[in-house]
């Protein structure tokens, strides 16, 4: 009897449900879109977790309907979720207040306070293997304690977004190594929560956190109400799931050394497989665990398609127009450079950052120049982090691309030239949902028949789309090396200015 596996990706802008057969072929896909809560102050980015549940239900039903199969034939489910979000629950398991998201920078003061209490950035890295950007979960918990004490008094459990969806599916409040490593609370070497960090927030916090478990352990089986709502069998296995980057690694076959994944969506990420923890003494490269039992050194820039979407809005361009105009502009955009920190920035850690167009003159003040400079600015921002990864011993033999931005051949070529490596897309564009489906199949095989390795599934299921491959062009190397140096110098020189500008805006120009 043929079995089916369901991968769910709950993201910042939408939830996707991908249904695959036991050969990894897509048979159905569903999608539900949503946005952020509107009207919040500067830096605040929040969503109602109930929105994710409704979107998951709708996307799953749509995927099953498109596949035209009996939902009772689905054997296992895996859930991918946006990392770092804080879902606070009371003793009855009810959401206390909207979730603060990965892109929320309003908690930067709390992140600095935690690091200060621990003795500074070097001490934080020594304790956990990671620095503590504002986006990580730890700062959001302290924010709740300091800014919303009434809500904090009700706190009984803290979950990450994908864990919250898993709890709705199974009734079990759990965490797994991969996503938990992005909280800022875990020592990634031991895969246990770090007591000094817990104490720097609240010694009672350890009682609010499920102990992280191996990612190979399933979360449980569908509870009756969830099975009925989704039209599935109660025996469906729910795998541990993971953060979207961890699932994206699985979905692109990034499960052995040498392969690096670049995801170009709202944010941009680069991440690699490692058999051991990779600790950056400077704290810019995140020392995450992956969701297969290994490690996932990762860099994240908070602004990727944020930049290109802004250019589209400014000049009323379609995606096709954006790419066509960018293709007609030479590498280097005739001197126009974008520092794309529109939502603040994580690598480098500049939560007060803002977007800066540098070098504009009459010759390059065209929609095409702005389009290409936006693509180059994002690639150069990621190139800054990739240089740090290489210094830590990560040498990519191939960079596999995923996310909406990689549909642009112009952008793919820019990335190949900036990264100085071949870039290629996989045939499956929904890599996080696909990775969740692969993990679900892995968990099911381990439960029912064998001690299967994740590569036993990724090797036959993950395929490359060779028509998308771009290699670095030798004639562009010098241009982008010089642009990278200029981009890095601009970023460094502006960091104090960003902080002063933010203080000025909040004190003088805050909207009434």
Describe the structure.
- The chain is globular.
- With 512 residues, the protein is an alpha/beta fold.
- Strands 1, 2, 3, 5, 13, 14 and 15 form a seven-stranded mixed sheet that branches. It has a seven-stranded mixed sheet with strand order 18-19-17-16-22-23-24. Strands 4-7 form a two-stranded antiparallel sheet.
- The mean pLDDT is 95.
- The chain contains 17 helices and 24 strands.
- Strand 1 and strand 2 form a beta hairpin.
- The longest helix has 32 residues, at 477-508.
Mean pLDDT over the full residue set: 95
Q: How many H/I helical runs?
A: 17
Uncertain segments are none
The coarse silhouette is globular
Strand content: 15-25%
Structural class designation: alpha/beta
Query: How is the quaternary structure best described?
Result: single chain
Radius of gyration: 22 Å
Compute the separation of the termini in Å.
Answer: 64 Å
Percent of residues in helices comes to: 25-40%
The description of the largest β-sheet is:
7 strands, mixed
Keywords summarizing the entry:
512 residues; alpha/beta; seven-stranded mixed sheet; 17 helices; 24 strands; 40% helix; 20% strand
